[in-house]
Structures are given as structure tokens and as C-alpha cells.
Amino acid sequence: MNIKQHQKMIHMSKFTPEQISEINDKLKTPEEVLQWGLENIHPKLALASSFGAEDVCVIHMLSKINPEARVFH
């Protein structure tokens, strides 16, 4: 990643650190975190997976919330 790409990513941030902290305090379960992400970031949200045991559990939760959610390997 070059410096211009890094700067672009920083400027694309939709949330301040304070907002992220507040959101984090409100979300208690993994399902709530996934639901929030799908409601606020989707379709830019995608799950990176190696298809290990933990990833399969997260993919299952994600697919129950939104079967159209993106997963990539």
C-alpha cells in the first residue's frame, strides 16, 4: 500500500474513534456486531475467511442475518 492509498483509507473513515467506542459499548453479542455492520457498512462490508472452525461459525451467523453478505477467501 502506498502513502496515497493509505491516506485515502483514512479519509474514507465514516466514524470517529469516539463513535466507534460508543458503538462498541452498545453491542454485546457477535450477532449484534454483525447486524450493526450490515446495517451501517454493507455493501462495503466483507468477511475475510480462511474457512477455519471460527470462521465457519462467523459465516453461519452472518448468513442467518443476511444471506447476501460477502465472504472471500
UniProtKB/TrEMBL annotation:
Q: What is the E.C. number?
A: 1.8.4.8
The enzyme's first-digit EC class, named in words, is oxidoreductase
SUPFAM superfamilies, A to Z: Adenine nucleotide alpha hydrolases-like
Question: A Gene Ontology molecular-function term?
Answer: phosphoadenylyl-sulfate reductase (thioredoxin) activity
Q: Which UniProt keywords apply?
A: Oxidoreductase
According to UniProt, the name of this protein is Adenylylsulfate reductase, thioredoxin dependent (CysH)
Q: Which organism is it from?
A: uncultured marine thaumarchaeote SAT1000_04_B06
